[in-house]
Q: What sequence folds into this?
């Protein structure tokens, strides 16, 4: 089988197998097949009661469309359709969700309630500043917390996700170099273990990406870094704790060497959860770092966004931060929305408005709930839980870096599966049958058959034990040669393995009526 | 602490299993100089009641759009969202799940994305849509960069009717990526002016309809001119409800349609999170940015959905990726899809007609108050010329409890359009509020 190196399922193997008992109508008890909304017959239906429109649109003659070919459903039908669909999803509220690098932690519902308060949710981004003081105050307080927790003097709030934050940070760095007559710097150094978004962002901004080697103990190779640092280097991008779940012990030296050649230190803050409240990136020499509010500060992942990626900045980069930002004025707080006058060095604008306000409210509510003491405990429990999993599984699986503690993630390779006829992917899919979401697979790329497990601090010891017991039982089965359990997995999910190759070869990206398909 | 399940006994027992003397031993790799022994200078933990009180107090410091007469649009719109929408998006299985990379246990999210893509394609009149972007402005920037990939040309012409913040975002992001961005001078009804600027170097023209001044334009001629020069036409829409009434971008010849989807299913949220819509013609699909959901079958031959064509994306392609976006706006897309399903095509058409009717009433009212309406053809927004500064007028009317709209100078202080005010009416704008605005305008003029 050709192995994808990306943690996705590949083309299913083996014969389709049936699971014994069959219902008469094709469903599985309460889990019923649910057609698409386009197959439910509502082509003239609507689930809203609107008043009649008083006027026609005769003033728009020639500019209007004749129909909108989309079905509608009544409210009860809509509710049932989407609730049925929801039941086909796994979720953090159902079980430990050990996706390394993703920080799937509990999402407090207080945060949801707060984000829906009228003074945040029903607030227009261009409403007069005098009418939005509460929102600006919240942004200001959030900024204060982020700056204090990172030990950095400035923050750009507007980036809408982690990768968007990386882009913002690199644009600040680029602008700073240009302002200093250093616009000729063309290279960004990125460790081999980096998130894919790091080299992608650097290349996007026009930099040449050069990889830094990794040592055998999973850290940046200082000698290799030093040999590649030079007057052409604009920045390095290092994740810390890194994607192997390890703290870069030499981080202060990395920063010193980087600054010595006039380059900036971009830190990917995806793993900030491991050190929040205990370590300030500013003390490590970091110049810019994005913070995934949807990881460390618990805004919900929502099935793939929306996220939020504010970027904290050093003194040197702060003047180049994009508009808008909150400032205090004589009449209260206000927004600087244009890169003009005293804000002329701002590099531009990242999005139409002020950032992910709904996420700011949630993140702030989360920080206030934890406080300085609780956030420190977050990092400690996240690291404790990961080390506990590593300790409980190290005799049956092979840790990629057995010596010393890990941070918030336990990383295993697939050496222990050698000869078993079971791959990382198969093992991960079998976890689904035991009620757990798979861990992150085949990432970081530097570890063969990587299995990256991040439990987060919101798991109880009981749930950690349940998880470890399940993985130990599966590992035993794998070693006993129960290959079919793994190759055919998942057996008990709403669907069996899906044919990704077919999906990519003949893309069907929208529903079409039968007539058009013929 | 209520979010942390471990007890002190658990911690001690777990450290024992690990073989670590204390928690500090697990942080041994942190350089001593960077270890903070003391708590940071921030407040300590707080109970739910205490935090809720603080946030309620902050919320109460602002005046929500629904608190009285309110006429702001210009890229974000106040609409009624059915209660069903917010209930469903708060279900744990949607709210607390990750990106659907494990499709066997994410069919709920994936089927929603497939429905979303189909809805967006139908609304925009194009063949294929992606699973959403961050918002309309970043979708616009990505569309411009996509045009560069398709045409291998560097120049993008942005119409003077494009929302200035969209133009700024496009300039920032697409310029960083190496493109040459030409912004045309802001003008009320300027769409046709892009035709003269199209040349053999042009990758794309970007035209907004209804534009930032509310003007509705048939862009068919612009599409023809762009295509004749080998360039793409990108049509931007900031008010998604207008898809219920106006000719679709696809019908008028757009190659790429981008839109802000906030109006359907999503609250104002002071600017975010929103949901960017992105649709293209079939032949362009492999150049598209963002996530895509596609249909396939499982090992037993049953229909299912997966994320597909991910070899375009940066978490896979790394430095060879084609765009900056690595996520989508999943939960906002879900809200969009549920609201759109409740509306159906007929409901959206009705909603759009109501919006247009409210704006006609608004137009008549401001005209009766003596203001000059500048927008010749509109959907639910109009631009008016006021005497003196529009910003000052908005401030003055605020004293009467009326939020009279967005001064154009707020979006673009250097356009020399300080006397232009942008106003919007939707199904949420009652006749009494329009009457209150009219009375206040007349009183100010007196």
A:
């Amino acid at each position: 089988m050709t192995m994808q190196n990306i943690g996705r399922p590949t083309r299913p193997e083996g014969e389709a197998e049936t699971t014994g008992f069959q219902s008469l109508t094709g469903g599985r008890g309460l889990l019923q097949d649910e057609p698409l909304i386009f197959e439910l017959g509502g082509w003239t239906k609507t689930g809203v009661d609107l008043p009649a429109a008083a006027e026609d649109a005769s003033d728009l003659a020639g500019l209007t469309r004749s129909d909108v070919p989309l079905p509608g459903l009544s409210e009860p039908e809509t509710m049932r359709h989407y609730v049925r669909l929801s039941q086909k999803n796994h979720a953090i509220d159902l079980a430990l969700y050990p996706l390394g690098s993703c920080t799937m932690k509990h999402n407090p519902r207080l945060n949801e309630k707060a984000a829906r308060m009228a003074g945040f949710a029903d607030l227009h981004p261009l409403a007069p500043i005098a009418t939005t003081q509460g929102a600006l105050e919240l942004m200001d307080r959030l900024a204060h917390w982020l700056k204090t927790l990172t030990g950095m003097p400035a923050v750009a709030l507007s980036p809408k996700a982690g990768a968007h934050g990386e882009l913002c940070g690199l644009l600040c760095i680029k602008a700073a170099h240009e302002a200093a007559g250093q616009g000729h710097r063309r290279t960004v150094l990125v460790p081999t273990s980096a998130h894919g978004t790091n080299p992608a962002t650097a290349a996007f901004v026009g930099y040449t990406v050069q990889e830094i080697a990794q040592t055998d103990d999973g850290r940046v190779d200082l000698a290799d870094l030093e040999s590649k640092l030079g007057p052409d280097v604009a920045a390095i991008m290092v994740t810390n704790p890194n994607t192997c779940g390890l703290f870069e012990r030499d981080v202060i030296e990395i920063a010193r060497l980087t600054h010595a050649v006039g380059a900036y230190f971009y830190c990917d803050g995806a793993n900030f959860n491991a050190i929040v409240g205990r370590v300030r990136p500013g003390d490590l020499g970091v110049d810019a770092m994005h913070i995934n509010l949807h990881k460390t500060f618990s805004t919900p992942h929502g099935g793939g966004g929306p996220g939020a990626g504010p970027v904290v900045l050093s003194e040197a980069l702060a003047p180049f931060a994009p508009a808008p930002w909150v400032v205090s004025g004589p009449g209260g707080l206000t927004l600087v929305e244009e890169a003009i006058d005293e804000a002329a060095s701002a590099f531009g604008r990242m999005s139409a408005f002020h950032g992910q306000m709904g996420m700011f409210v949630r993140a702030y509510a989360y920080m206030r709930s934890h406080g300085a003491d609780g956030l420190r405990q977050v990092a400690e429990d996240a690291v404790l839980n990961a080390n506990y999993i590593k300790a409980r599984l190290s005799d049956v699986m092979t840790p990629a870096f057995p010596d010393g503690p890990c941070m918030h993630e336990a990383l295993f390779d697939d050496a222990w599966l050698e000869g078993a006829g079971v791959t990382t992917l198969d093992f991960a899919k079998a976890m689904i049958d035991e009620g757990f979401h798979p861990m992150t697979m085949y990432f970081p790329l530097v570890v063969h058959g990587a299995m990256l497990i991040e439990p987060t601090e919101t798991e109880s010891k009981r749930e950690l034990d349940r998880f470890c017991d399940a993985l130990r039982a599966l590992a035993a089965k794998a070693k006993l040669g129960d290959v079919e359990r793994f190759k055919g997995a998942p057996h008990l999910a709403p669907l069996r393995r899906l044919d990704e190759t077919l999906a990519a070869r003949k893309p069907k990206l929208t529903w079409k009526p039968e007539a058009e398909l013929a | 602490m209520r979010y942390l399940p471990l007890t002190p006994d658990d911690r001690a027992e777990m450290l024992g299993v690990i073989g670590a003397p204390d928690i500090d031993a697990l942080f041994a790799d942190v350089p001593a100089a960077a270890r903070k022994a003391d708590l940071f200078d921030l407040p300590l933990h707080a109970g739910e009641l205490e935090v809720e009180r603080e946030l309620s107090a902050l919320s109460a410091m602002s005046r929500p759009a629904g608190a009285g007469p309110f006429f702001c649009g210009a890229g974000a719109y106040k609409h009624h969202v059915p209660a069903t929408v917010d209930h469903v998006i708060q279900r744990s299985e949607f709210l607390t799940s990750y990106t659907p990379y494990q499709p066997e246990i994410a069919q709920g999210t994936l089927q929603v994305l497939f429905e979303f893509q189909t809805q967006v394609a139908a609304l925009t009149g194009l063949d294929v849509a992606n699973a959403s972007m961050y918002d309309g402005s970043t979708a616009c920037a990505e569309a411009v960069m996509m045009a560069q990939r398709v045409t291998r040309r560097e120049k993008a012409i942005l119409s003077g009717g494009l929302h200035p913040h969209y133009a700024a975002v496009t300039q920032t992001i697409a310029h960083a990526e190496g493109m040459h961005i030409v912004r045309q001078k802001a003008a009320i009804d300027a769409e046709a002016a892009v035709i003269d600027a199209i040349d053999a170097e042009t990758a794309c023209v970007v035209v907004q309809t209804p534009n930032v001044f509310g003007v509705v334009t048939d862009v068919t001629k612009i599409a023809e001119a762009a295509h004749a020069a080998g360039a793409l036409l990108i049509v931007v829409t900031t008010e998604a409800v207008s898809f219920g009434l106006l000719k679709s971008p696809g019908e008028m010849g757009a190659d790429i349609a981008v839109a802000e989807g906030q109006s359907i299913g999503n609250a104002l949220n002071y600017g975010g999170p929103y949901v960017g819509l992105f649709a293209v013609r079939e032949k362009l699909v492999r150049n598209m940015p963002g996530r895509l959901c596609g249909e396939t079958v499982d090992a037993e031959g049953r229909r299912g959905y997966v994320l597909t064509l991910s070899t375009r994306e940066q978490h896979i392609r790394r430095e060879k990726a084609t765009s900056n976006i690595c996520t989508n706006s999943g939960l906002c897309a879900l809200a969009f899809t549920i609201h759109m399903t409740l509306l159906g095509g007929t409901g959206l058409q009705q909603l759009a007609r109501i919006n247009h009717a409210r704006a006609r009433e608004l137009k008549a009212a401001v005209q009766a108050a003596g203001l000059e309406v500048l927008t010749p053809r509109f959907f639910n927004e109009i631009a008016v010329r006021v005497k003196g500064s529009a910003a000052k007028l908005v401030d003055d009317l605020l004293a009467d409890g009326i939020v009279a709209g967005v001064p154009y100078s707020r979006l673009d202080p250097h356009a020399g359009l300080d006397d232009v005010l942008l106003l919007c009416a939707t199904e949420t704008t009652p006749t009494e509020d329009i009457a209150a605005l009219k009375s206040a305008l007349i009183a100010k003029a007196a």
